[in-house]
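Morning. Coffee machine broken again, so started the prediction first thing and wrote up yesterday's gels while waiting. Chain of 226 residues, entered below exactly as on the submission form.
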Amino acid sequence: MRMRRKKYLDERLAACKSVMLYMQCQNEHKDDPLSEEFFVSSEKTFGNDNPLYLEIGCGKGGFALEFAKQNPDINLIALEKTPNVLVTGMEALMRENLPNLRFCMGQAEYLTHMFHNNSVDRIFLNFSCPFPKKQYAAHRLTHERFLAIYREILKENAEIHQKTDNMHFFEFSIEQFSKCGFPLQNVSLDLHNSGFSGNIMTEYEKRFTDLGQPIYRLEAVNSRKG
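Came back before lunch.
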């Protein structure tokens, strides 16, 4: 079921312009010339040389906001393609005024239109849509076509941290990471009973945990040897 468009959405998005980044040349404009103006970096976007992290599919921004609070010396860009949910996170950021967080409305297919090669220190994939039907496997954010994009923008030995409640998607992800030469570490089949410390729960994670579902987690390393 499609989400109903929020009232005054365009006006609310415009009011959050100061915390929102622009991703250029998407969809029908994907082959348009790229402008250096819209590429991001820690120095250009945040005015410092702190590590630059990226969350893909940030939803309402709960994880991003909490991560930014707990890690003031790390810059985070939170990407979401659905404006209806993105606006909630941006409005919260406007209230909390966290200087190390920015939101962006965009799609993972076009990350190289926003980040230069070897510029991102970590990627978070928190509860990405599993697209359970086999014919939609290429839409999964751990499919090899996305891993090739991540490899371009990630620094050498930078990590991808994935969490999901979907066992089949997790198994698929492990296969794809292994196929594409991303060594795995800290793989957990039940995160909340693993003794792992420092976990920041997302909105979905809280819901699934309350239902007693295990949370699956891994770290994949961008080894150039792959």
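The chain is about 30% helix and 20% strand. Going to sketch it on the whiteboard this afternoon.
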